Amino acid sequence: MSRAISSPEQRARWNSFTKITRYVVTRLLSLFVTVLIGVYLTVIIANMGGYVDEIRRAQIREQIDIMVSMNQQLRFMPLEERNKYIQDLVELQEKRLGLDRPFIVRSFNFLFDAMTLNLGRAQQMVSDSGSSQVRLIILERLPPTLLLFATANLFLFFLSLFTALSLSRHYGSFWDRIIVALSPTSAAPAWFYGIFLILLFAAVLGILPYGGMIDAPPPTGTLPRALSILKHMILPILAIIVSSIFLAIYNWRTFFLIYSSEDYVDMAKAKGLPANMIERRYILRPTLPNIVTSFALTLIGLWTGAIIFETVFNWPGLGRATYRAVGLYDTPVIVGTTVIYAYLLAITVFLLDFIYALVDPRVQVGSEGHKV
Amino acid sequence: MPDQKLLTIQNLLLHFRTTKGTVQAVDGVNFDLERNHAVVVIGESGCGKTSLAKAILRLLPRNVQSYSGSVYLNGVDVMRLSDEQFRREVRWIKISMVPQASMNALNPVLKVGEQVAEPSMLHLGADKEAAWQQAARMFERVGVPVDFLHRYAFELSGGMRQRVALAMALVTAPDLVILDEPTSALDVLTQANIMNLLKRIKQELQTSFILITHDIATSSELADSVAVMYAGQIVEIGQAIEFFERPLHPYAKKLMASVPRLRSKMEPDFITGRPPSLISPPSGCRFADRCPSVFDRCSQDPPLVQQDGRQVKCWLYV
Amino acid sequence: MRNLKRTLAEILHYPSAIAGLIIVFLLIVLAIYTVIAIPYQEAIRLWRGGEEVWQEYPKMAAPVWQNWFTRTKLAETIVLSTRDNEVSKTVKAISTDMTDIEIEIPFKYAYDTFPQELALYLTAKYKQKQPHVSVIWITPDGREITLSDFSVQQSQSYRISQDTRLQRRLGGMKPDQGLFADPALETPTPLKGDYKLVVSGIVFEPDSDLDAKFILYGQVYGLAGTDHRRRDLTIAILWGTPIALAFGLLAALGTTVTTMFIAGVGVWFGGILDDLIQRITEINLVLPLLSILIMVGTFYSRSIWLMLGIVVLFSIFGSGIKNYRAIFLQIKESPYIEAARAYGAGSFRIILFYLIPRIIPLLIPQLVVLVPGYVFLEASLAVLGLGDPVLPTWGKIIDDAQANGALFNGQYYWILEPSMLLMLTGLGFAMVGFALDRIFNPRLRGL
Hints:
The structure holds three protein chains of three kinds.
Chain A: H1 2-46, H2 51-70, H3 79-97, H4 103-115, H5 134-169, H6 174-182, H7 190-204, H8 222-260, H9 263-270, H10 275-313, H11 318-328, H12 331-359, H13 361-365
Helix pairs in contact in A: 1-4, 1-12, 2-3, 5-8, 5-10, 5-12, 7-8, 7-10, 8-10, 9-10, 10-11, 10-12, 11-12
Chain B: E1 7-18, E2 21-33, E3 38-42, H1 49-56, E4 64-73, E5 76-77, H2 83-89, E6 95-98, H3 112-123, H4 128-142, H5 158-170, E7 176-180, H6 188-205, E8 208-213, H7 216-219, E9 225-230, E10 233-239, H8 240-245, H9 250-258, E11 305-307, E12 310-312
Parallel strand pairs in B: 3-8, 3-9, 6-7, 7-8
Antiparallel strand pairs in B: 1-2, 1-4, 4-5, 9-10, 10-12, 11-12
Helix pairs in contact in B: 3-4, 3-5, 4-5
Chain C: H1 2-11, H2 15-37, H3 40-48, H4 51-54, E1 78-81, E2 88-93, E3 99-109, E4 117-125, E5 132-138, E6 144-151, E7 155-158, H5 164-169, H6 175-178, E8 193-203, E9 209-217, H7 233-269, H8 271-286, H9 289-299, H10 304-316, H11 320-332, H12 335-342, H13 347-383, H14 394-403, H15 406-409, H16 412-440
Antiparallel strand pairs in C: 1-9, 2-3, 3-8, 4-7, 4-9, 5-6, 5-8
């Protein structure tokens, strides 16, 4: 008797396994192609289709002109010879920087370099360890950004999920209406609220730091250091949460409400299932794909806002590095951070798609499953 | 007691609020049901039939305004039970439901087998293995292949889903199963199959049925009694054979006259006008403005009177 | 029309929507008023005109109404010239060539703090012989202090605050303090009362003339205060409104309409076109918009129209497409579309007249909710230093404020004013948009 049930069950499990694998692989490939094209576009835009090259060429010529005119030894060279000398130097320099080949050809080199994370050297910025390699600069700046955003988003996710569930149970209650009324506050980005929080807690009340990641000078010992970092994380995380939470709760509570008016929820009630079981299996489970998708969008939104956000809080992460690079016109760093962002976004999308695949049976079974 | 009725409903009332006013969906319904007995509740769309099913199972909508009356199940008024008691003692153990054939009655992210096994695990305390075995047995009984236990709702056709819902309703062997339009979305052959299935189950499991439908013809096979519902009220209720032969209430008469007969040359009749809105039903007899036999007493709400072993809500029989 | 009335009636059910509508309405009125009252050229002149335009304003002054909330009254800015009624100018001929001109500038000083600066601007009309003036300061308690005497050119500015000789004569105290300090008190406290500045001048030609303008640069000025370059912030605050609204609305409109079209075309024609659109959407998702805007702004141009164009271009294939696609897919299957196809309607006709009208009710709330996003995007660009170099926008004010450490120096008004307006705009549109969503979205209707 039991074998009659487990055999189709085993078959079903194997089916879903292959289907999920196939889905994952397809997504990976398609995301890879996406990143490829995205980075290539970035490379093209970063050079404005050759415009920046023109600037650099002019810069080289100017520099060499000045250098030659300051060189005492060349002062007595006849004009024609001197011009040729300048021209040779210019060509040498251009060749060294690769400017003699047409941009299109070089762009593919850039693309390959960017994809393999060979991001070159910064023009002016330097990493903390003294290297001017863009990759090192970026790798140094990545952990603080990840730390801040991962923590904030975890808080955000669970806080909004549970609040939304609880609100959907008490539709029309006082708290429900307040959250709904407050949801438009998410129109403002996180950095905006950041400014106010700094104003209140740092400038007026003086109980939390203005910015940065750790006290200056940093305390000694692991625990004091950790505590100092935590203290500096409070305001930024608060800003992220305040700017997103009301809308997040509103969206999910609305989802839950919509999904709880589905017929199968009524059926679950009719079957006499207890309320928490209904919530878990009949409201939460079906909504999960939607939750995952909308969470993905929030995450992406936060990534893109990170530049200003980190600048406002003076947080030593990737965003602030990008801001500095912009201020210094440091092209390689700007392109480098953009590439990293593209990768990070793609990874985020992929992870969430993967979770989506695990959670939505239509993907597991395949929507091409024929009806019987 | 052996001759105690299974179900006695008195003055069941369910009103709910909408932006346009209060909908008096179930407005003072009275009827009885014996054991192992099938009553067919007939009525037009919008007369409150589905609300009646929900009212019996205490599935109240969010905007409920009034809910009152008595529902005696085996002599016990279950309206008096707390929500938690009702959930544990009545829902699905005593009364279960097969909803209107919509895609949505089954949870899309759970396997159907799991949903059929749920009530056994929950109400009968069965472990997972036993529950799934019971589910498999029900599948066989309703004619669904057993390996469908591992499928999802979207993989099944309408007819199959309906059978699964039926299996789910029977898995705890309840005393009463309410079926809301069990065959409306199905083709004729499947309809016949389902009806035969119901007859068999009634025989094998001694279950009672409340079959809510607008399809008189198909449901006539199963019916032991017939109740006619109009504008939130029961206007006639009686034994099936006698009803079909000679309906008493003018509305019921018109209904029966509108069913085409295979072997008769009679043209099907129709009823002029439209059923009243449940938001502001007329104060007198609700059928008065469409009734061919209307007279002056009809301006008052008629009482439910006994006539020839049936109950009719009409001044003509007072 | 009937739909519009019904919608308006439904909106009135939501108090947040009413508040939002009022805010949006006021903003639009403000924008229109600003564009009419202060024409564009005038605004640019005031914002970028240079020293001559700004000279009369104090540096980094808070708005006047801040005094209503504090107990210590900050010094207000006082500007008095010979054209004003309070100033008296007496012309008395002494001899055939010499004429005595006395200009008396009285003013009341009732503040708890000293002014930032004091300056006297003189204009003289003469052919050859310069007039000569003597500037005298009269305090409320009757002391007379001679500030300086000198010959006047056609346009002469006497910066009283920077007069070192005067400072020495005042015992080392800066003139801003020394001329106002109460001599009886130990700690420097301004003496409140009626002061008078007298310009006693002699002109040596019959047709010569002399005029004076006295400016007391207070710590507060105007409705909105001033910034580090002495610019009156009211200009930027006012003009920020139409710019923000225009940017937000144009971007939102452009994006939503185009996205809707593309989604419709994709769904209708299906197949490769649909797939292509999906792929482009994914690529677009991965492209970081802000970084690209930064690159364009840094390397190319910071014009606001260019930014707007790029923003719209990259937002078209945004996540909105997925929503519209889902809805279009549903609509596409409906019988009346089949009927339209059956009677031979062309594809574009179907898209334009059948698919799109169905989606407009759902589109409107989306559009409204998008506006604040774009308004803040423009502000974000400005804060990054990539704002339009010419236009006065709210984001630019915040950028200036941040760059000059407004938060550290306590110049809260500088940050709060544009932020409040940004917040208000965002909230206004968002509230209306959310209410509209509750009205138009069929799935939300029962709730």
